[in-house]
Amino acid sequence: MNKIGQFGVAGLFLIVGGMSDVSAEEMPKVFRDAPAQKGQWRMEILKFDGGEGGGEAVSAMPKSMSMCMDSIMDMAKNSEQQQGPSTCRGKILENKDDRAVYEATCEGGDVYRSTITREGPRSFLIEADGKSPEGSFAMTSRYTYEGPCKGNGGQPAISFDKNSEACKAMKARMSQMDPKKACAGATGEARRTCEQQMAQSLAQMKGMCE
Q: What is the largest CA-CA distance in the chain?
C-alpha cells in the first residue's frame, strides 16, 4: 500500500479509536450504546478515494476488517510512552444524538475530519477525509460494535476474514517466511533473537486471520 493509502488508514484510526484526548464524559453522544475506545468493531469500507495517484491504495485495501479497540488503545499508549505525546489535537465540532463531527489537526499540516452518523443501535456511518503534504483521502465506512474483544488478552489489533484476499496474500507470504533460513547469516545470540522475532511475527500474522 502506498503512502496515501497508509495515511488514509491511519487517519481513520485516529478519528475512531484515537480520541485519547477525549474523556468518556466528552465522547460524542452517537456512541451512547457502543464504547468507541473499547471492544470489537467491524469496519466495512464502502468507498475510498486516495486522491491523485491513490489507485494502488484502493486496490490493495481490504474491504472489511475487525478491530479490537482495547488493543489499538494499548498500542497508542505504548507509542506515546516511547515516542512522546501525540502531536495531533482533536475537537468535537458538532455533538448531537445521531450526528457528530470531529476534527484533528497535527503538526506538519495533517488535518483529519470525520462526520459520524448513527444508523441504528451500535451501527455508525463514518465519512472521513484528510489532507497532508503527501496527499489526501476520503473514505466512507460503516462501523458496527460487536461487543467485547473476542480474544482473552493479546488479541491482534486488526484481523480479517480468514477467506479474504488479505488473508490469502498473508498466508502466501507466511509460507515463504522460514526463521531458520531468514536468520542463517546471524550467529549466537543475534540468531536466537532474530528467530524469536520472526516467530513472533508469524504468530501475529496467523492471529490476524483466525
A: 60
Whether pTM exceeds 0.90: no
pLDDT in tens, 87-112: 778 888 999 999 999 888 888 888 88
Q: Are strands 88-95 and 99-106 parallel, antiparallel or unpaired?
A: antiparallel
162-188 per-position pLDDT tens digit:
787 778 887 888 877 888 888 888 888
Using the predicted structure, report yes or no on whether residue 144 has a pLDDT greater than 60.
yes
Left, alpha or beta for 109 (phi > 0: left; psi -120 to 50: alpha)? Answer: left
3-state SS record for the chain: CCHHHHHHHHHHHHHHCCCCCCCHHHCCHHHCCCCCCCCEEEEEEEEEECCCCCHHHHHHCCCEEEEEHHHHHHHHHHHHHHHCCCCEEEEEEEECCCEEEEEEEECCCCEEEEEEEEEECCEEEEEEEEEECCEEEEEEEEEEEEECCCCCCCCCCEECCCCCHHHHHHHHHHHCCCHHHHCCCCCHHHHHHHHHHHHHHHHHHHHCCC
> What are the grid coordinates assigned to 118, written together?
448513527
